[in-house]
Amino acid sequence: TLSILILALQTHALDRTQIADTAENVTPLLIGQTVPNSTLQTVDGDPVSLKALTMQKPTVLIFYRGGWCPYCNRQLSGLKNIEGQLDELCYQILAISLETLAQLQQQQLQTKFSVRLLADPDLEAISGFGIGFYVPDEQRTTYKSKWDISLTSDKTSGTAVLPAPAVFILDTKGKVLFSYVNPDIKTRISPDLLYQAAKLSL
């Protein structure tokens, strides 16, 4: 029996296109819901439709904070252990962040496996999936001054935004079959558990 911890988050009739005030208040898509279409960018800067991508194969979709995040890098690196098994199940792996194209290209060189890295510069996917949240100005300043990390801003408010780390499993119709969202940046689903979830979602 697969036992999976899925964080129960507030879901009281909120508009999921809105960015949450904190990571704890994000309202992610639920199992059974259909994902909204979003226009993303490839590492080459080409626009690509998320809907078009997910129609090709069942999808393991990962939202991560950026290549500067050690917990995200550990998560992506761990996928190497199951990419062959996921490929046998005909899954593709997509990973979405707010990174610049230059950062994505550098990360692709370092990743060296079949995950497809995508940028979400207009926050379409992050807001559509209900996992974006605003970063306080003082925290944004700390990121920049201490680690030279420049966070992406919401074009309307100018406030920095990050995604709560999340994993969704989607079928070719864009329906959510599984989700794992946790505002604790240190807590990620293990590769083995993700594989079992993908296997049971077929």
Describe the structure in your own words:
By secondary structure, this protein is α/β, with parallel strands linked by helices. Helix content is 29%, strand content 19%. The chain has a five-stranded mixed β-sheet. A two-stranded antiparallel ribbon has the order 1-2. It has a two-stranded antiparallel sheet with strand order 6-7. The longest helix has 11 residues. The chain is globular.
Which properties best describe this structure?
202 residues; alpha/beta; 5-stranded mixed β-sheet; two-stranded antiparallel sheet; 7 helices; globular; disordered N terminus
List the helices and strands and how they pair.
Layout: E1 39-41, E2 47-49, H1 50-54, E3 59-63, H2 70-78, H3 83-88, E4 92-97, H4 101-111, E5 116-119, H5 124-128, E6 132-134, H6 137-147, E7 161-163, E8 166-170, E9 176-181, H7 191-201
Parallel strand pairs: 3-4, 4-5
Antiparallel strand pairs: 1-2, 3-8, 6-7, 8-9
